[in-house]
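R.M. (postdoc): so does anyone remember the format we settled on? I'll just put the structure tokens first.
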């Protein structure tokens, strides 16, 4: 007789089948072709030309995604991506930031979107990932309220062209990094030290511009979804010293709450109300607040803060008390992502959220077998995805997870020296090599389990 042996039941999914998976990228970091087909100069082109990139490299070629996008979309499809969040290059579409539109720029994004859709992937477009057209910076940039109109016009142009196919729109990515690193510490373009008031102006004007962009998008395409993407990091004091506790509260207000409370509550954090009073005009908070459909969360670590006079807001980075670190000396703190998602549930009414960026740079290399074995990145991603699963189990309204990033790319002021990709890019030959982390991620997507 034939004996039929019982088979083990397949492990149950930790993520629902409609949970979306993929990666995020930024135009300036991957496209290259900075002087091709009518693209105008950005503040990052100027910053790079002035010698501020640590390894002396540039984004002139970067990953050459402008010419190799089909190959990159094929890698997404092969991994099983259901979503891809990318940014549009403002200088590629409106080279001067305002005025004449560049047809070839829009044609490139037509081709890219069509290729993404053909692969069965959901395109999610971000309008601004830090590449401000240089002519607008020359007129005051984000420190000036005059930027609101050009940004809303750019939003209208982009959604009019692509909104028939792209249904998810995010005007801003990480306005806190733009303000603090670009206009506070001078670590990023445009490389200014505008003081506390300058940082707050940049934050506030980005919020205003985003509010105007939301309305322009909805006026042009009423049925698309809109949201924003915030880099949120729980701010904790280095220790119980009163000055350090106060520093952590201040930094939480600057780093997390100006953007978050602005769009979700139409409010200014109490601790910053006096400083921001000269900036905020009647009607501003009503413009900033908007009923968004989705909130993207970029998470890398917690922030451990201490009182440090002379730095912006008299706050500096303290000892994170951590025993795991990335290749960029960032602490590895996966449980901070859970804390963040739970906070959004309890303090903000459990809005629809997704992880828009999460990843780590490590010094991985090609092994003699031709492969890239990156166990540290696999462990980093596994631990963070597990925290998303825990948050889902505890009722957090999380809809998706996007890794940062698909490709090694131009890592801003670090240049080409820091690698975040789950696919390695040889910057001499531009050859793409999927890493072990790419294969691990593809398996998570396939099974709906962390593993």
């Amino acid at each position: 007789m034939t004996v039929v042996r019982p088979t083990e039941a397949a492990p149950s999914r930790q993520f629902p089948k409609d949970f979306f998976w993929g990666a995020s990228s930024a135009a300036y970091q991957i496209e290259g072709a900075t002087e091709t087909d009518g693209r105008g100069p950005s503040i990052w082109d100027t910053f790079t030309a002035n010698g501020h990139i640590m390894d002396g490299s540039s984004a002139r070629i970067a990953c050459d995604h402008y010419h190799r996008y089909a190959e990159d979309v094929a890698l997404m499809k092969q991994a099983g991506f259901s979503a891809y969040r990318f940014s549009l290059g403002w200088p590629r579409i409106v080279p001067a930031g305002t005025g004449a539109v560049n047809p070839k720029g829009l044609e490139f994004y037509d081709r890219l979107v069509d290729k993404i859709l053909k692969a069965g992937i959901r395109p999610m477009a971000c309008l601004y990932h830090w590449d401000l057209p240089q002519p607008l910076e020359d007129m005051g940039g984000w420190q000036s309220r005059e930027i609101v109109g050009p940004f809303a016009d750019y939003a209208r142009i982009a959604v009019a062209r692509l909104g028939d196919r792209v249904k998810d729109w995010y005007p801003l990515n990480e306005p806190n990094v733009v303000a603090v690193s670009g206009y506070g510490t001078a670590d990023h373009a445009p490389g200014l030290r505008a003081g506390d008031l300058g940082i707050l102006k940049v934050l506030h004007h980005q919020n205003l511009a985003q509010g105007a962009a939301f309305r322009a998008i909805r006026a042009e395409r009423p049925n698309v979804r809109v949201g924003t993407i915030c880099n949120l990091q729980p701010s904790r004091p280095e220790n119980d010293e009163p000055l350090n506790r106060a520093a952590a509260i201040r930094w939480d207000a600057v780093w997390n709450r100006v953007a978050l409370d602005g769009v979700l509550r139409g409010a200014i954090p109490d601790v910053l109300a006096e400083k921001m009073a000269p900036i905020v005009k009647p009607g501003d908070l009503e413009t900033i607040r908007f009923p968004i459909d989705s909130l993207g969360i970029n998470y890398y670590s917690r922030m451990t803060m201490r009182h440090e006079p002379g730095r912006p807001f008299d706050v500096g980075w303290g000892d994170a008390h951590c025993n795991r670190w990335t290749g960029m000396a960032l602490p590895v703190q996966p449980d901070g992502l859970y804390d963040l998602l739970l906070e959004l549930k309890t303090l903000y009414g459990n809005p629809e959220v997704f992880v828009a960026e999460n990843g780590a740079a490590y010094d991985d290399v090609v092994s003699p077998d031709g492969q890239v074995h990156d166990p540290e990145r696999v462990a980093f991603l596994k631990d963070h995805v597990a925290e998303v699963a825990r948050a889902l189990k505890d009722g957090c309204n999380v809809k998706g997870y996007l890794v940062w990033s698909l490709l090694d790319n131009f890592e801003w002021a670090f240049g080409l020296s820091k690698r975040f990709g789950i696919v390695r890019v040889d910057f001499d030959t531009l050859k793409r090599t999927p890493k072990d982390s790419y294969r691990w991620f593809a398996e998570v997507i396939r099974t709906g389990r962390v593993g």
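R.M.: ...and that's the designed sequence above, right after the tokens. Also worth knowing: Residues 195-220 form the longest helix (26 residues). The longest strand covers residues 122-128.
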